[in-house]
Amino acid sequence: MDRPAHDWYRFVLSFPPHLVRDYADRFELNSNSLLLDPFCGTGTTIVEGKKLGIPAIGVEAVPLPLLASQIKVDWSPNPDRLKAHAQSVAERVLTILESEGISDDPDENHDVGGAANLRALPEKTMKLLLKGSISPFPLHKALALIEVLKEEKGSPYYRHELLALAKLLPSEIGNLRFGPEVGVGAIKQDSPVVSLWLSQVWRMANDLGTLSAMDETPSKALAGDARGMGELIAPRSIDAVICSPPYPNEKDYLRIVRLESVLLDLIDDRLHLRTLKKRLVRSNTRGVYKGDEDDKWIRSNRNIAKVAKEIESRRIALSKDSGFERAYHRVTKLYFGGMARHFRSLSTALKPGARLAYVVGDQASYLRVMIRTANLLAEVAVAQGYELEGIDLFRTRHATATGEQLREEVLLLRWPG
Ligand SMILES: C[S@@+](CC[C@H](N)C(=O)[O-])C[C@H]1O[C@@H](n2cnc3c(N)ncnc32)[C@H](O)[C@@H]1O
């Protein structure tokens, strides 16, 4: 039931649509409300909002999930025309591949002497990818498909067709697996790229058949930094927030979407990657920079200082000396400081009485020091003038490192105005 649009592209471990339904219901949202997800990722909140008839806005800093969110709430393409368009694109790609002596069917590609004449990425671009992310044959076919798709940029079906490819690139076409961190799994020498893609567009078109009747509810996703909400959202316009912000768990949002971001030209080079990383709330040690100073926003919070101190003391006691390990305590403070900035900038956009739900998890990633994310985040929000309504338990996860059950919780806040 939940699959249409949600399944067009999603993060591993993104929160489930029913969570949005539950809190939308509890916050009594309806077609006159405006719902916000300031960390919208692949758009679960805004897609579900649209299905429920609740107007919604998402904000996201990373281009690929932003694009996915924007397309996932665009239910305007005519399903039959989308299918026909994709069919003609597929035929053109197959003709090109055939003229090169290459078949889409891996079983027919035995005699295609070596990889010398295959399409490839420039060396500099290739270096942005995890080694082994994608094999030469699937890469060649995906690039041929992208070439033909680019000629269709003006078409109303272009973006949906692009997203269908983005969804397939990591694991069906490429060699990546998520567990939940991204890594290279079994290497596929070849893959039926064009037929996989066509089937995915078909599935999306079938979804559009049911979704188009619900297309009147406005919904959009904006590029931006959740620590600067005041510049993005009209003052006193938001009735509710439902989101899952990052938390200090070493997850690298630019790494998990790297293959599809690079192939779709959304990340050009290392410099661009660094610029994008700087727009994120700090949640992993690979994304901490010298000039970072979000920690000054939580300087007076004793509990955050205590956790950071405990992490640093344990690091010293265990003689852990790598650059990453030394950054553990710092990223913890930068994270909560970034969230304080977010809460401050968000307050101007909220209507008095606005209700907020933040899904976050406890963490023990840094030398097994427990970070009770929801509790600390509650203190950070209260310091910015929010009222704490409560903390719900959403689910528990088994942490392999410590053997403990980690709590995933929903922090509930109210903006008094
Ligand atoms: C846990 S994910 C959200 C997943 C989302 N609920 C979904 O349905 O896919 C957190 C998201 O916050 C984004 N993010 C991190 N820092 C941000 C910032 N400063 N501004 C906007 N988005 C940010 C990340 O790129 C990531 O997509």
List the helices and strands and how they pair.
Elements: H1 3-6, H2 17-26, E1 35-37, H3 44-52, E2 56-60, H4 63-72, H5 79-99, H6 123-126, H7 136-150, H8 158-173, E3 176-178, E4 182-184, H9 193-211, E5 219-223, E6 238-243, H10 253-256, H11 258-263, H12 270-278, H13 302-317, H14 323-347, E7 350-361, H15 373-383, E8 387-398, E9 405-415
Parallel strand pairs: 1-2, 1-6, 2-5, 6-7
Antiparallel strand pairs: 3-4, 7-9, 8-9
Bound molecules: S-adenosylmethionine (SAM).
The site of S-adenosylmethionine has 23 residues, from β2.
Structure in a nutshell:
The protein has 15 helices and 9 strands.
Output the keywords:
single chain; 417 residues; alpha/beta; Rossmann fold; 2 domains; seven-stranded mixed beta sheet; 15 helices; 43% helix; 14% strand; binds S-adenosylmethionine
Describe this structure in words.
This protein is α/β, with parallel strands linked by helices and 417 residues long. It folds into two domains: 3-74 and 217-415, Rossmann fold (3-Layer(aba) Sandwich); 79-194, no CATH class. Helices cover 43% and strands 14% of the residues. It is built from 15 helices and nine strands. It has helices spanning 3-6, 17-26, 44-52, 63-72, 79-99, 123-126, 136-150, 158-173, 193-211, 253-256, 258-263, 270-278, 302-317, 323-347, 373-383; strands at 35-37, 56-60, 176-178, 182-184, 219-223, 238-243, 350-361, 387-398, 405-415. A seven-stranded mixed sheet has the order 5-2-1-6-7-9-8, sandwiched between helices. Helix 2 (17-26) crosses helix 3 (44-52), helix 5 (79-99) packs antiparallel against helix 9 (193-211) and helix 13 runs antiparallel to helix 14 (323-347). It is globular and about 70 Å long. The two termini are 38 Å apart. The mean pLDDT is 94. The structure holds S-adenosylmethionine. Residues 11, 14-15, 39, 41-44, 59-62, 65, 225-227, 244-246, 253, 279-281 line the site of S-adenosylmethionine.
